[in-house]
């Protein structure tokens, strides 16, 4: 069968580094779909990370290209802008990884989300920490972006519920070469947990400088993004024993996850991030559903709504709960870097290695 | 020494020089007079190659300067003291002078030349460290002339050197011009001070709306009826 | 107290690298009156150069500046000759846009060539540091600070004491007059832009071991470079040095006492305050 | 220097009629065009024209090259959105508040930046705009910080009980944009033919000379900035309500300020229609590049096979290269059309005319 | 009554005193010549009078009103206009537009301003250039434009800084006639000029500055025969 699917992503612009993972995930999905006899005609659009551009892309795909359904966009701000368009054009939209809660809290019938929400990034980490030790205080460092601020907010919120006191809150502008003074300040507060939300590169800087300054909490907790990347893990001197929440790991025992990991490495010469996996799975779900529904958008929507999948992202189901509409209740994972490798350490059901807790100190 | 042959030039669509022919012999003071906008400064700019002629040729000591860039013209020994002074405003007086002797051939004599021009213009010595841009109009004019002399020119182009100078200084300037000419520097002088400049000039050209209309010896032109009427207001 | 001293010291050290970026920009502005919006992108190119010299040939970043510096000089000279020279006489806003366009070309060209992945250059000293009185001092930053100081001193001497240096300044102040002095102004512009680019590239090389590299990394630094140059007084090397260190310290201390999120505000407010009281910057000469 | 005779007396009859015709056609446009994608692009063009023309008043006529206009754009966007989202004030009232807010900000910025001249002014304007961006990021309680503001619903516009529009389609935004465009063009035209316009240009040409001719620099620069800021805020408000989501990195970014300047300069600075041309060139161009229409049409027309090496290069790589190409085009325009597209066209026309004579 | 009173004006640049304790008065309708060697402080005095520099000491009283703290635009509005030693045309505007900018100081209507401007252009003899861009004019015409532009502001007192510099005697004659015509209109003028013949012809009184100080003041005849002036400025024949 032949289907036409749209894919909006940040191919250029400041979000491009992560956007690339999504592109790669989709590329693999297309290969697999072909094997399954589904010939996807992909309409790929760049939103350059700007909402009005993602709108233009959506308009074009929905009206001019007449795609059956759309996967993307990468960032929450773009997803925010186009979720309503999906409703207007009655075009199914499946969001792979943008995690802002509000997106699926607007009672939109045509917008589906595979990704967990920002809130989940924080809670799983604190759940783990409290199950392994007795942390009393927490310092929160986050980058001053959408994902960063909402992540920090969730952490603060959930820490309150867990009886952990917040002793420091620092929101920094990404891209600064020097966090030493901030870290010195945090060190003086002697927190049990250091919770960080940072994109790729700042994660490395923060940990390097934490080591210089000599911060030693019970655990370093990284909420996704930067801490879950391979380049971070490779920096053994600073990445050892850091925890990170993630939507997916290369060694999780969800069907096909390990194979996906391997194929990705052979094809692109680097390890996939969870963004790649979510994009892959979203494209698989969208294309298969669309093929089954013969490209009929209304039918795709109801199929998405009622369907159930079990693939590299584990079980997927778009449900309505707690104010959410069409939101997959995705199981978050926690991984820890041990010897330069991400190991799934929480929840117990998916564990591949035992967690090291508390932090044993710097080498 | 310098030969201008059938020089034509326009600023965009506006033609300002028409078939200019002009010659300067070694050791002469040649002056060019003409009403405002006649094209005197433009002629000098063509010689210094700040602008490129539409047609015609300029040769200096037998060399066609067509292929040269401005700075190479200076290296050949043609130095201009431009209209409007063009001092380097954020450099001190001394630094301005040093820049005057930027070309290789002039660097050796730099210190001596600084002393020489300080001798001519004591005000400059007093203000050695003042920024060029804050000097008064006349002071800047002195600096511009002094800076031109720093390069040991063979041919000195001077565009209205007496502009803005007090009477006392105008006199001094004309004396200086004659003095350096005696020292062997050839001079092409553009002046509004027609009387003075014709008096010291060996030969002169009269420019009107971009054309050479008269040429002759300085003193002859002084008594020329047309010159008297048009430029001397007599 | 430790916190204050720590932020002061790390501010100064980072400020050294900022200074280098600022000096490059100030030279370009000084001579060509061009506000170079591609300055950060030049820095980025320098970073990529350093990165590949390190990963492919195993040349230490601090040593590789011997290669990056001249290469970036040539690159800058090339840009000047081919692009900027054509618009020197035109309106200032055109120059701004030309450099913006050049920046776009550089960052997106690099992205096509090397993907938009973050690259991290890890040396064995990348996170090494030593302690003095409880204040940790990063070794690589200290080294780069020393190198910066050296380069600055040499440059200062060059611009103020040599004929070429003075000719560069003269060109900046009046191109036509400079031509009349026998100065080859085109060459001076090429030297100036080359120097600027080479300093930006060197700054890129110096922060590579402690920072990260991706195609859009330049924009942060472009903005910083602007602030530094204006703060110090456009065209002034001493000013840019001072400005760089001041910004480094302001960021660092501002971050601690006002919260990390506000540190940029602290910097910009400082910037505006200086301009209000000294409109031509700390070291600027006013001639209006 | 070109000794050009400048025509400042009114407009000829022919262009006036042509202009009117264009306006009428633009008003009828949504009736004929079903394609909402085209409408979307038109709206973006309108917003760009408003931004560019507003900047033109300050940059083009008064010679103050602000590269911080995102501050006013953001001010409009934020005020309107915050009022709508947090205070239930409908946007057609919010827009006015946005204008007032932009005015206030302009007066503050003006009092700081106008002490500076030339490049110092340029950079100070950037700095001030950055202060606004970072503040919006940090003042979470007011602006919702980096998370931005998402509108859920726009209240329907009713006049005396009759529903004018419920904003469910693009058409109301289209008309709002069109009206704003006509407004800025009108303002520019009025300005060019008034004392104010002369004073602005005098300041652009030589501040000291202007000052000595009885022109208060502070006053008139601030007037120019205020006008410019207020009109820019219109673009911001429209953008915010139309897109339905704003955050500091979209409506207060340096990127945006640069975009504003770009529109003006590509079109032609200091002329009424320069920014219009600029927007008409830039917006469709960047959209065509972004969505890879060139590669697509090459493939669709059969000139290049989709599965050939060149075809896959077009579909794969070109989509990554569009910003690069955009950059190249910007450079080319600046190098070869220093007076913008409009200036270039005029020069070309003048040459043609001369040849014909 | 004096239209302008300069009272003990001093202006220091760092250690340098460009004007020191200069005092004199200008009476209605006269032409005051201001001369002095280069760097004597003439332009600086103009700048102090018209509000470009606040005087370091002293005050300027125009028409009975202290100019203290007034910006140049206010000064112009009050009826005191100056030209620049280094001319400042509004280069990308046409000649008539340049003059209109001046005229707009007194009227809000473009039409009136245009009429007034054309009138002034006729006065200085530039009407044939009215449509040209001012940036393309040669120096002499720029100077005339400068005068036309300030005349258009309808000043009571006109300060002319070397408007004849760079003009040949024949052209200067035009300007001299212009200045005399302006005097005929009842406009008071203060004129800086280096050409003694001219200054002698047009001035009713002359003030001589030297090294920032007032060296002498008097009628043209008094001035040329003043030995101090001869020594400092004219040089003996
Ligand atoms: N940059 C320019 N652009 C356009 N036209 C110019 C330019 N410079 C000069 N002109 C024109 O060229 C003509 C000749 O000007 P030029 O400056 O050579 O005259 P000049 O004889 O030196 O006059 P003056 O005695 O006033 O200095 C004038 O008509 C002037 O308007
Ligand atoms: N901004 C300044 N900084 C320092 N010195 C200055 C400044 N402006 C003027 N001067 C000095 O003050 C003195 C008076 O300058 P002014 O321009 O008033 O002279 P002037 O009488 O107009 O001379 P000229 O006839 O040469 O135009 C000069 O020596 C000049 O160098
Ligand atoms: C960190 C990422 C997974 C992206 C993030 N969810 C966002 O909304 O921008
Ligand atoms: Mg001339
Ligand atoms: Mg003077």
TrEMBL record, chain B:
GO terms for biological process: L-amino acid transport. Pfam families: ABC_tran. One of its GO terms (molecular function) is branched-chain amino acid transmembrane transporter activity. The keyword Hydrolase does not apply. Residues 2-234 form the ABC transporter domain. Transmembrane segments: none annotated. Keywords: Amino-acid transport, ATP-binding, Nucleotide-binding, Transport. InterPro entries: AAA+_ATPase (IPR003593), ABC_branched_ATPase_LivF/BraG (IPR030660), ABC_transporter-like_ATP-bd (IPR003439), ABC_transporter-like_CS (IPR017871), BCAA_Transport_ATP-bd_LivF (IPR052156), P-loop_NTPase (IPR027417). Belongs to the ABC transporter superfamily. PANTHER family: HIGH-AFFINITY BRANCHED-CHAIN AMINO ACID TRANSPORT ATP-BINDING PROTEIN LIVF (PTHR43820:SF4). This is ABC transporter ATP-binding protein. It comes from Oryzomonas rubra.
UniProtKB/TrEMBL annotation, chain C:
It holds the Pfam family BPD_transp_2. Coiled coil: none annotated. PANTHER family: AMINO ACID ABC TRANSPORTER PERMEASE PROTEIN (PTHR11795:SF445), BRANCHED-CHAIN AMINO ACID TRANSPORT SYSTEM PERMEASE PROTEIN LIVH (PTHR11795). Keywords: Amino-acid transport, Cell membrane, Membrane, Transmembrane, Transmembrane helix, Transport. It comes from Oryzomonas rubra. The chain crosses the membrane at residues 12-31, 51-75, 96-115, 135-159, 190-214, 226-249, 256-277. GO terms for cellular component: plasma membrane. It comes from the Bacteria. This is Branched-chain amino acid ABC transporter permease. GO terms for molecular function: transmembrane transporter activity. It is found in: Cell membrane. It is a multi-pass membrane protein. Belongs to the binding-protein-dependent transport system permease family. LivHM subfamily. One of its GO terms (biological process) is amino acid transport.
UniProtKB/TrEMBL annotation, chain D:
It is a multi-pass membrane protein. Its main location: membrane. PANTHER family: HIGH-AFFINITY BRANCHED-CHAIN AMINO ACID TRANSPORT PROTEIN BRAE, HIGH-AFFINITY BRANCHED-CHAIN AMINO ACID TRANSPORT SYSTEM PERMEASE. The keyword Nucleotide-binding does not apply. Keywords: Cell membrane, Membrane, Transmembrane, Transmembrane helix. It comes from the Bacteria. It is found in: Cell membrane. This is Branched-chain amino acid ABC transporter permease. The chain crosses the membrane at residues 12-32, 38-58, 93-114, 173-191, 223-246, 258-283, 323-345. The keyword Transmembrane helix applies. One of its GO terms (cellular component) is plasma membrane. GO terms for molecular function: branched-chain amino acid transmembrane transporter activity. InterPro entries: ABC_transp_permease, LivM-like.
From TrEMBL, chain E:
Keywords: ATP-binding, Nucleotide-binding, Transport. CDD domains: ABC_Mj1267_LivG_branched. InterPro entries: AAA+_ATPase, ABC_AA/LPS_Transport, ABC_transporter-like_ATP-bd, BCA_ABC_TP_C, P-loop_NTPase. GO terms for molecular function: ATP binding; ATP hydrolysis activity; L-isoleucine transmembrane transporter activity; L-phenylalanine transmembrane transporter activity; L-valine transmembrane transporter activity. Pfam families: ABC_tran (PF00005), BCA_ABC_TP_C (PF12399). Residues 4-236 form the ABC transporter domain. Gene3D superfamilies: P-loop containing nucleotide triphosphate hydrolases. One of its GO terms (biological process) is D-alanine transmembrane transport. SUPFAM superfamilies: P-loop containing nucleoside triphosphate hydrolases (SSF52540). One of its GO terms (cellular component) is plasma membrane. PANTHER family: AMINO ACID ABC TRANSPORTER ATP-BINDING PROTEIN, CONSERVED COMPONENT OF ABC TRANSPORTER FOR NATURAL AMINO ACIDS-RELATED. This is ABC transporter ATP-binding protein. It comes from Oryzomonas rubra.
């Amino acid at each position: 069968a032949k289907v036409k699917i749209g894919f909006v992503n940040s191919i250029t612009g400041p979000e491009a580094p992560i956007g690339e993972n999504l592109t790669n995930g989709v590329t693999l999905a297309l290969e697999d779909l072909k094997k399954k006899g589904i010939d996807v005609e992909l309409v790929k659009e760049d939103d350059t990370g700007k909402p009005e551009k993602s709108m233009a892309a959506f308009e074009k795909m929905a009206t001019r290209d007449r795609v059956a359904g759309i996967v993307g966009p990468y960032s929450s701000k773009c997803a925010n802008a186009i979720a309503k368009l999906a409703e207007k054009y009655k075009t199914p939209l499946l969001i792979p990884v943008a995690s802002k809660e509000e997106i699926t809290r607007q009672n939109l019938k045509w917008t589906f989300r595979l990704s967990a929400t920002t809130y989940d990034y924080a809670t799983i980490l604190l759940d783990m920490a409290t199950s392994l030790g007795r942390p009393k205080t927490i310092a929160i460092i986050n980058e001053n972006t959408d994902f960063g601020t909402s992540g920090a907010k969730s952490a603060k919120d959930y820490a309150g519920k867990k009886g952990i006191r917040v002793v420091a809150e620092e929101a920094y502008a990404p891209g600064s070469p020097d966090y030493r003074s901030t870290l010195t300040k945090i060190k003086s507060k002697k927190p049990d947990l250091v919770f960080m939300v940072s994109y790729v590169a700042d994660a490395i800087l923060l940990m390097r400088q934490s080591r210089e300054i000599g911060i030693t909490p019970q655990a370093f907790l990284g909420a996704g993004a930067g801490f879950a990347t391979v380049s971070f893990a490779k920096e053994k001197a600073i990445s050892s024993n850091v925890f990170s929440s993630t939507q997916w790991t290369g060694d999780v025992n969800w069907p096909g996850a390990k194979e996906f990991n391997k194929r990705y490495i052979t094809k692109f010469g680097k390890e996939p991030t969870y963004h790649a996996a979510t994009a892959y799975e979203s494209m698989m779900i969208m294309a298969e559903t669309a093929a089954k529904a013969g490209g009929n958008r209304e039918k795709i929507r109801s199929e998405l709504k009622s369907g159930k999948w079990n693939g590299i992202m584990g079980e997927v189901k778009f449900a309505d709960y707690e104010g959410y509409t069409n939101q997959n209740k995705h199981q978050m994972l926690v991984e820890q870097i041990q010897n330069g490798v991400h190991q799934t350490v929480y929840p117990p059901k998916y564990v591949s290695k035992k967690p090291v807790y508390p932090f044993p100190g710097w080498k | 020494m310098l030969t201008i042959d059938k020089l034509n030039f326009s600023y965009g669509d506006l033609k300002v020089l028409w078939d200019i022919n002009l010659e300067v012999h070694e050791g002469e003071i040649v002056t060019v007079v003409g009403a405002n906008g006649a094209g005197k400064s433009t002629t000098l700019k063509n010689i210094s190659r700040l602008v490129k002629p539409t047609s015609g040729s300029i040769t200096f000591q037998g060399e066609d300067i067509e292929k040269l860039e401005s700075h190479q013209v200076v290296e050949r020994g043609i130095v201009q003291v431009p209209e409007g002074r063009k001092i380097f405003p954020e450099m001190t007086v001394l630094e301005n002078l040093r820049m005057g002797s930027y070309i290789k051939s002039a660097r050796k004599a730099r210190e001596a030349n600084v002393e020489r021009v300080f001798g001519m213009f004591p005000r400059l010595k007093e203000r050695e460290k003042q920024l060029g841009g804050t000097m008064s109009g006349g002071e800047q004019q002195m600096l511009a002339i002094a800076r031109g002399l720093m390069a040991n020119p063979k041919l000195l182009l001077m565009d209205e050197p007496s502009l803005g100078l007090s009477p006392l200084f105008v006199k001094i300037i004309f004396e200086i011009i004659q003095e350096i000419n005696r020292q062997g520097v050839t001079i092409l002088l553009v002046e509004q001070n027609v009387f003075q400049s014709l008096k010291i000039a060996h030969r002169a050209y009269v420019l009107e709306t971009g054309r050479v209309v008269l040429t002759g010896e300085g003193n002859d032109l002084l008594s020329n009826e047309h010159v008297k009427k048009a430029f001397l207001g007599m | 107290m430790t916190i204050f001293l720590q932020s002061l010291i790390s501010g100064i050290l980072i400020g050294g690298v900022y200074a280098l970026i600022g000096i490059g920009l100030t030279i370009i502005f000084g001579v060509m009156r061009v506000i170079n919006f591609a300055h950060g992108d030049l820095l980025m190119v320098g970073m990529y150069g350093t990165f590949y010299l390190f990963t492919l040939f195993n040349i230490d970043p601090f040593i590789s500046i011997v290669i990056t510096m001249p290469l970036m000089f040539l690159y800058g000279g090339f840009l000047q000759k081919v692009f900027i020279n054509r618009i020197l006489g035109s309106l200032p806003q055109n120059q701004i846009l030309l450099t913006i366009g050049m920046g776009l070309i550089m960052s997106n060209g690099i992205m096509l060539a090397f993907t938009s992945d973050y690259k991290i250059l890890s040396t064995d000293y990348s996170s090494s540091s030593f302690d003095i009185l409880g204040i940790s001092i990063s070794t690589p930053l200290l080294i780069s600070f020393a190198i910066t100081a050296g380069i600055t001193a040499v440059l200062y001497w060059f611009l103020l004491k040599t004929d070429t240096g003075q000719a560069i300044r003269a060109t900046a102040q009046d191109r036509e007059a400079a031509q009349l002095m026998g100065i080859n102004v085109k060459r001076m512009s090429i030297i100036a832009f080359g120097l600027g680019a080479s300093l930006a590239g060197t700054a890129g090389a110096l922060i590579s071991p402690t920072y990260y590299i991706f195609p859009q990394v330049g924009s942060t630094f472009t903005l910083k470079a602007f602030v530094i140059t204006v703060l110090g007084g456009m065209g002034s090397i001493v000013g840019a040095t001072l400005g760089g260190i001041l910004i480094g310290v302001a960021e660092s201390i501002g971050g601690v006492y006002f919260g990390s999120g506000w540190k940029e505000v602290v910097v910009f407010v400082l910037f505006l305050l200086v301009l209000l009281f000294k409109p031509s910057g700390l070291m600027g000469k006013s001639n209006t | 220097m070109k000794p050009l005779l400048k025509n400042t007396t009114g407009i000829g009859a022919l262009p006036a009629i042509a202009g009117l015709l264009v306006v009428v056609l633009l008003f009828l446009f949504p009736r004929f065009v079903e394609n909402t994608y085209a409408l979307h692009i038109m709206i973006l063009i309108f917003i760009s024209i408003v931004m560019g023309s507003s900047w033109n008043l300050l940059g083009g006529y008064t010679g103050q090259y602000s590269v911080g206009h995102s501050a006013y754009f953001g001010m409009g966007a934020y005020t309107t959105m915050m009022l709508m989202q947090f205070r239930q004030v409908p946007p057609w009232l919010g827009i006015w508040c946005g204008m007032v807010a932009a005015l206030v900000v302009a007066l503050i910025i003006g009092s700081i930046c106008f002490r500076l001249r030339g490049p110092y002014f340029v950079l100070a304007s950037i700095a001030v705009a950055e202060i606004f961006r970072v503040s919006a990021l940090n003042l979470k309680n007011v602006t919702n910080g980096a998370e931005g503001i998402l509108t859920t619903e726009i209240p329907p516009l009713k006049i005396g009980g009759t529903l004018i529009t419920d904003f469910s389609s693009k058409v109301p935004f289209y008309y709002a944009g069109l009206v704003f465009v006509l407004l800025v063009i009108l303002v520019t035209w009025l300005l060019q033919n008034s004392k104010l316009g002369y004073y602005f240009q005098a300041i652009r040409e030589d501040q000291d000379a202007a000052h000595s001719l009885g022109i208060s620099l502070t006053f008139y620069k601030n007037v120019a900035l205020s006008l410019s800021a207020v009109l820019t805020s219109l673009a911001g408000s429209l953008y915010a309500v139309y897109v339905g989501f704003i955050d500091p990195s979209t409506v207060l970014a340096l990127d945006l300020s640069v975009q504003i300047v770009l529109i003006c300069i590509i079109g032609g600075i200091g002329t009424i229609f320069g920014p219009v041309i600029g927007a008409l060139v830039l917006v469709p161009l960047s959209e065509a590049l972004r969505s890879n229409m060139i590669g697509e049409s090459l493939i669709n027309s059969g000139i290049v096979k989709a599965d050939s090496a060149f075809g896959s290069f077009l579909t794969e790589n070109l989509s990554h290269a569009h910003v690069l190409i955009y950059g190249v085009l910007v450079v080319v325009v600046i190098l070869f059309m220093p007076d913008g597209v409009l200036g270039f066209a005029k020069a070309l026309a003048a040459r043609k005319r001369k040849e014909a004579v | 009554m004096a239209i302008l009173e300069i009272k003990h004006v001093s202006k220091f640049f760092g250690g340098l005193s460009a004007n020191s304790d200069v005092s004199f008065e200008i009476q209605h309708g006269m032409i005051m010549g201001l001369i002095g060697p280069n760097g004597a402080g003439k332009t600086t005095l103009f700048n102090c009078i018209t509000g470009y520099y606040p005087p370091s000491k002293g005050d300027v009283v125009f028409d009975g009103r202290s100019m203290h703290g007034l910006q140049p635009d206010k000064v112009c509005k009050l009826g005191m206009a100056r030209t620049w030693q280094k001319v400042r045309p509004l280069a990308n505007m046409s000649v008539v537009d340049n003059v209109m900018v001046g005229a707009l100081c007194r009227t809000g209507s473009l039409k009136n301003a245009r009429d007034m401007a054309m009138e002034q252009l006729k006065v200085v003899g530039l009407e044939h250039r009215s449509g040209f861009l001012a940036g393309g004019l040669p120096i002499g015409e720029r100077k005339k434009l400068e005068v036309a532009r300030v005349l258009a502001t309808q000043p009571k007192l006109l300060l002319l800084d070397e408007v004849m510099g760079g003009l040949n005697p024949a052209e200067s004659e035009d300007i001299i006639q212009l200045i005399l015509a302006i005097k005929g209109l009842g406009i008071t003028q203060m004129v800086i000029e280096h050409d003694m013949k001219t200054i002698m012809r047009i001035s009713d009184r002359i003030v001589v500055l030297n090294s920032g100080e007032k060296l002498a003041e008097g009628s043209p005849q008094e001035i040329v025969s003043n030995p101090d002036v001869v020594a400092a400025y004219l040089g003996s024949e």
